[in-house]
C-alpha cells in the first residue's frame, strides 16, 4: 500500500481496500478500526486506519471472526507484544488443519460409499436397496419407494 498523506472518506477507502463501505462500517462497529469523524459526521480514514482495515480484511479472509480479532486487539491494546499475534495465527492454523482433516475424512467416507455401493443404490442400507430392486421388478420405479420402505422398517 502506497503511503498517503491525506485521510480518505469511507467510499474512497472502501474502493482502495477492495471492500464495501458497509464492510468498513462493520469493522468500525466491531471496534476493529477507529476512524475520526469530520464536523459533518463523515468518517475520515487515516493511513493507520487503512493499514488496520487491510489487516482485518486479510485475517477475516483467512478465517478469523471479528470477535476473535476484537479479542486480539484488546490484548494488544492492553500491552501484549507481537507474540500474541503469532500465537493467534498458529492457533487459527491448527483449527484450519483440524477442519481440513475432518472434511478429508467425510470425503473419504462418501467416496467409499460410491466404491462399495455403486451408483445404483446411492449408498443406502441393504434393506432400502432390496426394496428398490423389488420395486424395479414390479415395474413401479418410484424414486421414493426405497425411502418409504426404510421408514416402514423402523
Explain what the structure shows.
With about 150 residues, this protein is mainly α. It has helices at about 10-15, 20-30, 45-60, 65-75, 85-120, 125-135, 145-154; strands at about 10, 35, 45. It has a three-stranded antiparallel sheet. α1 packs across α2 and α6 (about 125-135) packs across α7 (about 145-154). The longest helix is centred in the middle third of the chain and has 39 residues, at about 85-120. The protein is elongated, with a radius of gyration of 27 Å. It starts with 7 loop residues before the first strand and ends with a helix.
The stretches of 5 or more residues where confidence is low (pLDDT under 50) are none
Largest sheet: 3 strands, antiparallel
Shape designation: elongated
Rounded to the nearest angstrom, the distance between the terminal CA atoms is 63 Å
Tell me the series of helices and strands, N- to C-terminal. Answer: EHHEEHHHHH
- The helix count comes to 7
Q: What is the share of helical residues?
A: 55-70%
- Arithmetic mean pLDDT: 82
Amino acid at each position: 500500500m502506497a503511503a498517503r498523506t491525506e485521510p480518505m472518506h469511507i467510499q474512497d477507502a472502501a474502493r482502495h481496500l477492495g471492500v464495501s463501505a458497509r464492510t468498513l462500517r462493520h469493522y468500525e462497529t466491531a471496534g476493529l478500526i477507529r476512524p475520526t469523524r469530520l464536523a459533518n459526521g463523515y468518517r475520515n480514514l487515516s493511513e493507520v486506519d487503512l493499514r488496520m482495515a487491510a489487516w482485518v480484511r486479510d485475517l477475516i479472509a483467512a478465517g478469523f471472526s471479528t470477535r476473535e480479532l476484537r479479542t486480539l486487539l484488546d490484548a494488544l491494546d492492553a500491552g501484549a507484544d507481537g507474540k500474541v499475534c503469532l500465537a493467534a495465527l498458529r492457533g487459527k492454523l491448527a483449527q484450519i488443519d483440524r477442519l481440513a482433516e475432518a472434511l478429508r475424512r467425510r470425503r473419504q467416507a462418501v467416496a467409499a460409499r460410491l466404491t462399495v455401493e455403486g451408483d445404483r443404490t446411492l449408498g443406502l442400507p441393504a434393506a432400502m436397496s432390496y426394496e428398490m430392486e423389488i420395486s424395479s421388478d414390479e415395474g413401479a420405479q418410484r424414486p421414493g419407494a426405497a425411502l418409504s420402505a426404510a421408514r416402514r422398517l423402523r
